[in-house]
Design goal:
The structure is a single chain. The protein contains 12 helices and 15 strands. The chain is α+β, with helices and mostly antiparallel strands. Strands 8, 9, 10, 11, 12, 13 and 14 form a 7-stranded antiparallel beta sheet that branches. It has a 6-stranded mixed beta sheet with strand order 5-4-3-2-6-7, with helices on both faces. Helix 11 crosses helix 12. The relative contact order is 0.14.
C-alpha cells in the first residue's frame, strides 16, 4: 500500500436540511438521565448552563440560555424546574420537556431589573432541593486527573455552589455528576440514535461545506475576511470560533478573520464547527509542491499524516478499544517525532468535544451510536500545519437498518460519502463507519491546486 498525491475528483458537497428532534426522542433522553440517576444513586440533578457550556442543558430542554446563566433541577421522580434570568424565563414554556419556571435576575445581564422573589438558595428550595438528599451537580468537565475521578470537585460558578451548599446545610451528599452525561464509556450523551444522527448530520455536513466554500474562494491577494465570506453558514450558530487564517496566526492575540491578504506560500488554516461536528483544513497556499517555502513538507509531514488518517479509518470498528486506536496512530505517526499532543479522536455532539476514549491504555470500547471526530494534529518544527479533520458515526447492523428505513435521504448521502472514500481515495472504510461530513479523508495539501489530493493505492 502506498500514498500518492494525484488528481482526484472532488467530493459532492451535498446540502442537508435541519432535522428537528422528535418529541419521543426528548422523552427518551429524559428517561435515560433518570435511569442514570438511579445507577448513580442520586435523588436530584442540578445542571448548570451558559452559552459556552450548555450541551447538557440543551440535551434535555432543546435550547440554550444564550447570554444568561441557567439551572435545571431534575428530580428522580421526573419533576423538572428551571431557574432562569429575565430574558430566558419565557423560554421555559418552549422547553422540549415540561418544567416549572423560577426567575432569578442574578442570571441576567448587569443592571437589569431584579424582580426575583427569592435569593438563589430560596429558589433552589422552591425547586425541591432539600437536605439529606443525594445531589449531583453537572457542569461540563469530568474533573479527572490521571485517571482519578474528581467527584468532589465542581466546575460551576462559586456563588451557585455556595447557594447549593447553604440549602444542603452539610447533610446529604454532593457529587460532580458530569460523567452521567459525558463519561466516554457510559455517559448518556456519547451514543446517538437514528433521530439524533439525522439531527446532527445537518451541522456536520454544513461545516464541511463551509470549509470547502472557503477553500474554493482562496486566491492570492484576497483577504481572510473576503475568503470567510464565501462560507454559506445558513445562519447557524458555530460551536467553535471560525478560523480563516493566513501566514502567522494570533498576531496581537487576534483569533478572527482579518483584512490580511493571502500571499503565495502562506500557511493557511480554515476551521468551522457546527452542532454535530467540525471540519478543518491546514496546508499551504501553493499551486505546486516547489512553491512551499520549506522543503520536504509533503514527504515529511503531510503524507505521513494522511497515512495515519487512512490507518485510523481502517482500524476503527465497534468493539475496538480507545487504547488500540491510540496505538495504531502512535505506530503510524510516532508522537515523539510528530508531536501531536491531544487525543487522536474524540466524541462530538452539540459541542465540538464532549469527551474522548482515545488515550494510551484506554480500555473503553467503541459502541454503535458513537459520533467521533478524526482529529490528529501533528506538528513539526519549521513546518506549517497538516490537517483534515471531519466526523463520522459508528452504526451496527440494527442502527444502519433503522437509518436506511427512517431516513432514506440521509442514508443515501452517507453511502455516497462512503463510496467516495473507498473508490476515489482508496481507503477501505468499514461498513459500520458512516461519514457525517461530505469531506471525510479528503486532503488537498496544495490549497491553490483544486485537483490534487492524497489517495491510498495498492
Amino acid at each position: 500500500m502506498s500514498i500518492a498525491l494525484r488528481p482526484v475528483k472532488k467530493p459532492e458537497l451535498m446540502r442537508a436540511l435541519p432535522t428537528v428532534l422528535k418529541d419521543e426522542t426528548m422523552l427518551v433522553r429524559k428517561q435515560k438521565v433518570i435511569e442514570g440517576m438511579e445507577r448513580w444513586g442520586l435523588d436530584v440533578l442540578i445542571l448548570y448552563a451558559d452559552v459556552e457550556h450548555s450541551g447538557n442543558f440543551e440535551y434535555l430542554t432543546g435550547f440554550i440560555p444564550r447570554f444568561e446563566e441557567a439551572l435545571l433541577i431534575l428530580h428522580r421522580t421526573g419533576r423538572v424546574c428551571m431557574i432562569l434570568g429575565n430574558e430566558n424565563l419565557d423560554k421555559c414554556r418552549r422547553s422540549r420537556i415540561d418544567a416549572e419556571p423560577l426567575l432569578f435576575s442574578g442570571f441576567s445581564l448587569p443592571n437589569q431589573p431584579d424582580d426575583s422573589a427569592d435569593a438563589l438558595d430560596g429558589l433552589l428550595r422552591k425547586a425541591g432541593l432539600a437536605p439529606d438528599e443525594s445531589v449531583g451537580v453537572v457542569g461540563w468537565k469530568l474533573m479527572e486527573k490521571k485517571g482519578q475521578k474528581g467527584e468532589c470537585e465542581f466546575d460551576i460558578p462559586y456563588y451557585i455552589m455556595m447557594a447549593v451548599k447553604s440549602v444542603m446545610n452539610g447533610r446529604g451528599s454532593l457529587v460532580n455528576a458530569a460523567g452521567l452525561f459525558l463519561d466516554p464509556d457510559c455517559g448518556v450523551r456519547i451514543t446517538a440514535d437514528a433521530d439524533e444522527i439525522a439531527h446532527y448530520e445537518y451541522g456536520a455536513s454544513l461545516a464541511s461545506n463551509c470549509v470547502q466554500d472557503a477553500m474554493d474562494a482562496l486566491a492570492v491577494g484576497r483577504s481572510e475576511i473576503e475568503t470567510a465570506n464565501a462560507m454559506r453558514t445558513d445562519g447557524q450558530r458555530n460551536s467553535v470560533v471560525t478560523v480563516c487564517a493566513f501566514g502567522e496566526r494570533f498576531v496581537k492575540g487576534n483569533l478572527y478573520p482579518s483584512g490580511k491578504k493571502l500571499s503565495l506560500g502562506d500557511p493557511v488554516s480554515i476551521t468551522v464547527g457546527m452542532k454535530g461536528g467540525l471540519s478543518s483544513r491546514s496546508g499551504y497556499a501553493v499551486y505546486e509542491e516547489g512553491q512551499i517555502p520549506v522543503p520536504a513538507y509533503i514527504e515529511s509531514l503531510a503524507m505521513p499524516y494522511f497515512n495515519a488518517q487512512k490507518i485510523w479509518l481502517e482500524t476503527l470498528r465497534i468493539g475496538l478499544t480507545g487504547g488500540q486506536l491510540y496505538d495504531a496512530v502512535e505506530s503510524a505517526l510516532p508522537r515523539s517525532e510528530f508531536r501531536w499532543y491531544l487525543n487522536p479522536g474524540h466524541f462530538t455532539a452539540d459541542e465540538e468535544w464532549t469527551s474522548s476514549p482515545v488515550y494510551a491504555g484506554s480500555r473503553i470500547r467503541f459502541k454503535s451510536g458513537n459520533m467521533i471526530q478524526l482529529d490528529i494534529i501533528p506538528k513539526k518544527p519549521g513546518f506549517g500545519g497538516a490537517g483534515a479533520e471531519d466526523g463520522l458515526v459508528m452504526a451496527d447492523e440494527t442502527l444502519r437498518r433503522q437509518l436506511r428505513k427512517e431516513y432514506p435521504k440521509l442514508w443515501q448521502r452517507m453511502q455516497i460519502r462512503r463510496d467516495y472514500i473507498r473508490e476515489e481515495l482508496g481507503i477501505q472504510i468499514g461498513e459500520e463507519l458512516l461519514p457525517l461530513s461530505n469531506t471525510l479523508a479528503y486532503h488537498t495539501p496544495l490549497f491553490l491546486n483544486r485537483e490534487m489530493a492524497f489517495t491510498a493505492a495498492n
